[in-house]
C-alpha cells in the first residue's frame, strides 16, 4: 500500500504538512518580499519568510509546522492564512487542523444508509440526473437519468462504487467531463477535508489505490488543497446527446 494513504497521525503532523504544501506554492515576489539568500534548494517560501509575513517568530512557526505545539490562537491562524494566501475553504481547513487536539477524533467506520423517502425522492426526479453520495463520495443511490449521464452504476461492483475512484479510473465516467481536471481536483480536495481526523481502512485503501494507479491523483493529494464546495455548473459530453451543461 502506498505511504500516501490516509491514516491517523500524531497531532500537528497533518497541520505541518498542510503549511509546508501551501508555502511551497508561493514565491517571495508574489507576496511582496525581496529575493535574498541565493538559490533556493526547494520551491516556495522559507519558514522565516512565512513567520515574517505573519508577524510571529521563526521559532514559533517552526515548532507549529513540526507538530511540537498543540495548536495556535485564532489570531495566529488568521495571520498565517493571510500570509499563505489561503482561500476561504483552505482557511477553514487550517482552523480544523490546528484545533485537532481540542476535540476527540471520531473512530470507527461511518454507517451510511439511504432512507426510504430519500430513495423515493431520487426516483421521482425523472427528468433530472441525481446521485446520492457519502462523505467520501461513495455512491449510495442514483436514479435512471444519472445512470444515463455517467454510467450504469449497478454494473459496477459495490466495493468499487465510489465517485472519486470512477472519476480517475473509469474511462467512461472520466470522459463525460469537458473540464475533467478541474472537477477531479475539486473532488480530491473535498475528500481530503472529509477525511481529516478519521482513520478508516476503506478510505486508506481508496487513497492508496488511486495514488498508485494515477499520477495526477498522487500529485493533487500531496498538494493538500482543501474545499467544501458542494455545488457548481458542469459541462458534459455524451456519445449520443453531445455536449450539454448541468447545474
From TrEMBL:
This is Helix-turn-helix transcriptional regulator. SUPFAM superfamilies: lambda repressor-like DNA-binding domains. InterPro entries: Cro/C1-type_HTH (IPR001387), Lambda_DNA-bd_dom_sf (IPR010982), MLTR_LBD (IPR041413). Residues 18-91 form the HTH cro/C1-type domain. Coiled coil: none annotated. The lineage of its organism: Bacteria, Bacillati, Actinomycetota, Actinomycetes, Kitasatosporales. It comes from Streptomyces prunicolor.
Amino acid at each position: 500500500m502506498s505511504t500516501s494513504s490516509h491514516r491517523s497521525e500524531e497531532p500537528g503532523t497533518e497541520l505541518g504538512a498542510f503549511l509546508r504544501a501551501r508555502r511551497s506554492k508561493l514565491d517571495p515576489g508574489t507576496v511582496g518580499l525581496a529575493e535574498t539568500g541565493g538559490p533556493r534548494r526547494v520551491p516556495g517560501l522559507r519558514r522565516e519568510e512565512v513567520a515574517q509575513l505573519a508577524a510571529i517568530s521563526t521559532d514559533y512557526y517552526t515548532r507549529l509546522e513540526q507538530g511540537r505545539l498543540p495548536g495556535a490562537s485564532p489570531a495566529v491562524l488568521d495571520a498565517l492564512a493571510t500570509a499563505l494566501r489561503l482561500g476561504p475553504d483552505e482557511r477553514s481547513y487550517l482552523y480544523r487542523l490546528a484545533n485537532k487536539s481540542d476535540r476527540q477524533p471520531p473512530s470507527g467506520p461511518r454507517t451510511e444508509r439511504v432512507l426510504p423517502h430519500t430513495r423515493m425522492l431520487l426516483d421521482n426526479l425523472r427528468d433530472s440526473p441525481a446521485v446520492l453520495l457519502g462523505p467520501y463520495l461513495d455512491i449510495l443511490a442514483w436514479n435512471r437519468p444519472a445512470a444515463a449521464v455517467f454510467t450504469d452504476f449497478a454494473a459496477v461492483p459495490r466495493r468499487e462504487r465510489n465517485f472519486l475512484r470512477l472519476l480517475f479510473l473509469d474511462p467512461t465516467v472520466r470522459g463525460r467531463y469537458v473540464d475533467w481536471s478541474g472537477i477531479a481536483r475539486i473532488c480530491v480536495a473535498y475528500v481530503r477535508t472529509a477525511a481529516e481526523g478519521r482513520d478508516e481502512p476503506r478510505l486508506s485503501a481508496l487513497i492508496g489505490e488511486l495514488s498508485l494507479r494515477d499520477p495526477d491523483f498522487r500529485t493533487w493529494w500531496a498538494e493538500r488543497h482543501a474545499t467544501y464546495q458542494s455545488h457548481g455548473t458542469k459541462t458534459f459530453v455524451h456519445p449520443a446527446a453531445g455536449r450539454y451543461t448541468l447545474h
